[in-house]
Amino acid sequence: MYVCMCHAVTEDQVKKAIDGGAGTPRQIAKGCKAGTDCGSCVRRIQALLGEHGARPCPTARLAAKLGLAEAEPQPGGAAADPAPAAPAPKAVPTAPIAPVLPLRVA
Questions:
Q1: Is 62 exposed, middle or buried (0-12, 13-18, 19+ CB in 10 A)?
Q2: Rg (CA), the chain
């Protein structure tokens, strides 16, 4: 399956780069140019890095801290404390909306 359509880079090529020691999307890009053009493949490259034991990107760690993504496992096997639930938004009073009348062409 292709990861980078701009440079015709497959998952196998990215996995070989990871097995060869690449640990970041930038290191993978140096070898096969994946992620250097439009950038739409960078998230998939980061996912492949994560699947192969590489350190997750800072954005993933931040999202986990904010409760926007699943928390990454903590050292020692303990799960991270879930983020406190955000308070429910307050209802905002709205004014009634006037009906829309069709235009008549004369």
A1: exposed
A2: 23
Q: Which amino acid is it at 47?
A: A
39-51 pLDDT, tens digit each? 888 888 888 888 8
Q: Tell me how far apart the 2 most distant CA atoms of the chain are, in Å.
A: 77
CA distances from 73 to 27, 35, 61, 83 (A): 25, 27, 11, 14
Q: What count of residues does the chain have?
A: 106
The per-residue pLDDT for range 44-100, each reduced to its tens digit, is 888 888 887 766 556 666 666 666 555 445 455 444 455 556 666 666 666 666 677
Q: Provide the whole-model pTM.
A: 0.51
For residue 44, CA distances in Å to 26, 34, 83 come to 13, 10, 26
Nearest to 45 by CA among 67, 16, 65: 16
Name every residue whose Cβ is closer than 8 Å to that of residue 12 and which is 6 or more positions away in sequence. none
Find out whether 2 and 8 touch, Cβ atoms under 8 Å.
yes
